[in-house]
């Protein structure tokens, strides 16, 4: 729990009272690799902070899954559109490594909003973080080649090669595994 407190203290003025209320609602959960955190059709009930691990977002396809996002330690993860609208998710969220999350339920987050000074700032920060990642992803798909997306992904998250299957990376940058193999040969 200290890791999440340090993260919030870097970004907010966190009073001891606010921390006590906030931390009393946090639940630490550990998940093994390949665990589905959210299934298509399920309503997302958690806003989570990744203490450790890697998570992927994907849409199941008849021929192969379409990976459209990854989330890493010290970041938020949620099927946020489902979380906000309380409607079924149109995608899956899966752990790619053993993962430790600190989770808040939707109801607990609403209570934190009502009873703390910091709650709205934390909620805004989490939603801004998720929005910026989504926007960067969209711009990347519109403005960069697959090779540029691959290079940028590893500049931002160099441990990916060791931890994420290449078929997921290929899907994420929008190419086949064979095309990814050619890109890797060109840049090595």
From TrEMBL:
A UniProt-annotated Pfam family: cNMP_binding
Protein name: Putative Crp/Fnr family transcriptional regulator
Top-rank lineage group of the source organism: Bacteria
PROSITE patterns, alphabetized: CNMP_BINDING_3
Annotated signal peptide: none
SUPFAM superfamilies in the cross-refs: cAMP-binding domain-like (SSF51206)
Domain Cyclic nucleotide-binding: 26-112
Gene source species: Galbibacter marinus
